[in-house]
Amino acid sequence: MKIALLVIYFGVMVAIGLYCRKNATDVDGFVLGGRAVGPWLTAFAYGTSYFSAVVFVGYAGQFGWKYGIASTWIGLGNAIVGSLLTWVILGRRTRIMTQHLDAKTMPQFFAERFKSPALKIGASVIIFIFLIPYTASLYNGLSRLFGMAFNIDYSVCILLMAVLTAVYVIAGGYMATAINDFLQGIIMLIGIVAVIAAVLVSKGGLMTALDGLARVSDETVSATPGIFASMFGPDPLNLFFVVVLTSLGTWGLPQMVQKFYAIKNEKAIQKGTVISTLFAVVIAGGSYFLGGFGRLFSDQIDIAKNGFDSVIPTMLSGLSPFMIALVVILVLSASMSTLSSLVIASSSTLTIDFLKGHFIKDMSEKKQVLLMRILIVVFIAISAVLALVQYKSSVTFIAQLMGVSCGALAGAFLAPFLYALYSKKVTKAACWVCFIFSSVLMILNMLIRPNFPPIMQSPINSGAIAMLAGLVIVPIVSAFTRKPDQKLVDDAFACYEKPTSVAQKTALGSK
Predict the structure, then answer these.
(1) Domain boundary assignment for the chain
(2) 3 state SS of 393
């Protein structure tokens, strides 16, 4: 049954990739789907890129174990801050200005917005360096579940996921990814609801499970009775930093923001906001809610030996063969959708922002698409090798690997991108300071972590601090550095002032 479901799933993914080849003949079609992607596809592409094995296996397991049922706040933060507010604050403005500047990637946006090729190169280098460990983290969580369900070697899991993702992304580009993301999102919605119900039933139902969780005690964490069933858990401050990293971080991640470049129209943005938020409530809220009951399985879990990534697979190991097959496809869907989004972001950035015009002067549309397809293979191969190396190294937790990457990327880009959409006062110097500060902070966190203050030794906390610091750094540096050229700024913001006709139910006329 498990093998049959997987074969059907893989067949559908590849068929969609081949079907979408006609939409991937030029750069705009390959990278953005011709900027004509509807609300359902965009919302599901956003959601499935947001939540992967990193969330379902890594974060839900680790933070559910640490904070108990209070970890559900992380999922709710993802829905409200990471989805709803992101769409409301960034969606429309990103779509309008990126089309006005003819920007297809985040580095290209910085280059055109500030007329700075150097900013484009700097941003593309940061993206390429930090997206690789982010991508490698996807394989690890998947391997845990494949190992539980099929008892197959870890390297086979990596090869399978890498090859199949490469096939449909190379063939169909962004449109194939968006359609596959939609189907994968449906699988994720059905799967997470079914899995939560099955796990709770195995522990006697919701109220019995909550009662059991309230009876769990761990003197090394807290002496307060029932702390793991409380509203804010044993460590509210560190829980807050996790909410910031996983929620606010999406505002600066290239593979997430790029979804707004491709959305079709105003109506699609309005619908997409609602769909994306509800999707996040179910998937993120459900994942962390499920992880919150991890300590009920403490008699089967050895954290010291197997790490936090073993929590969710252990919780699921006693389910029926059909449920295990559904879980495997759920996490495979989440991971492949995120992987496809990451490799498109990295390959397009390297081609359009780094190689074109700097190392390869004359590059036609056809050559750019071909090079992006080649780089997708290279990027997937590098991340797969890194995943194998990481599996045998001392960095065993998914959350650590993703925390460093997410902190560096979102810390570097969140504030410059947000302020560049809204403020005419942002300077190139402010962007550079934010780029360098966040990148250096996260690299140092990897290299000399024990020398950091206790609150910043966690890459999660350092990443959250990098993002929040950027929101202060950019306006302060902009106030004391050379002002941008007024004509350049006025031209960039002119796109917001273009008159457009709307129905009277949206705005009253002058007469």
Answers:
(1) 2-493
(2) coil
